[in-house]
Amino acid sequence: MRVTDPIVGKLDQGLIFCCAKAERYRTKEVFGVVITARCDIEQKKFPILNYIPVTHFKDWLNVDGFDILRERSKRNENATFRNCLKNVELPESLLNTHSHRDIIEKYHDLIQSKKSKFSDAIAQSCEKIEFLESCTKHNAESVSQLFTKYKKEAEIITRELISHRLSGHYYLPDIEPNANSNGYVALLREIRYLPQSLASGIASGIDLEAETEDEWIGYLSSDPTSFAMPVGVLTSPNIEHVLQSVSFLFGRIGLPDPPPDQVAKLLEQHP
């Protein structure tokens, strides 16, 4: 991925600037990558400039990465628990009215009467589910424990991110030329905007501490000592690939599955 130096005072598609905002990263350093069409920028036909927030990979791990890992792990553990119920001949519908722990306690004798491996498995699954439900991203110890206990799953998510297979998130190795960073993540679902006058000012640099335009401040990070300015330019074909990912994310169409009886008839046919 190639990132070049910005030209002072020049707005362009792919321009990356600091002091941007992202809803769930209010206390973190956030950048923005401009996605408004080049022709609109060149001819100044944009009342607002659209951008995608970009956050440090390490910050992303603590917010979106944490949520994705916890939800995936919960789905997997719940599936394991349901399979355990089948193995001890208990209906899955019990989960509609009972907690996992309640089921184990209420049907303890029945579960113990089955093979020991099933009773051990259902107990372990319940403990894991309870751990996942107690985890919170606001607790550093919870975050650490989650990524330690589910290290393999966390590695899978990271690989999906790096290879651009994680929907809604786009990995960027760097946002400045010749930088040596741990990577960044563009939040594709959170498209934001700046007024044209503010965007034009950022292209040359704005000292937020000395800025008197109060209506501008709400569009930028809350740190008044920051200097909002371009830091790099994401060049072709990478900026086009980002836009393609955004288009696919919002423009994809879901179709209904074919009728099961039709699928069954097709599966019965042989050459």
The general outline is: elongated
List low-pLDDT spans: none
Biggest sheet overview: 8 strands, antiparallel
CA radius of gyration? 25 Å
**In percent, how much strand structure appears in the residues?**
15-25%
Oligomeric status of the shown chains?
single chain
Which series of helices and strands comes N to C? EEEHEHHHHHHEEEHEHEEHH
The whole-number mean of residue pLDDT values reads: 89
Q: Tell me the total number of β-strands.
A: 10
- The residue fraction in helices comes out at 40-55%
**Which class best fits the helix and strand makeup?**
alpha+beta
Task: Write a short abstract of this structure.
This protein is α+β, with helices and mostly antiparallel strands and 271 residues long. Helix content is 46%, strand content 15%.
Q: What does this entry look like structurally?
A:
- The protein is α+β, with helices and mostly antiparallel strands and 271 residues long.
- It has 11 helices and 10 strands.
- Strands 1, 2, 3, 4, 5, 6, 7 and 10 form an 8-stranded antiparallel sheet that branches.
- Helix 2 runs antiparallel to helix 5 and helix 2 packs across helix 7.
- The protein starts with a strand and ends with a helix.
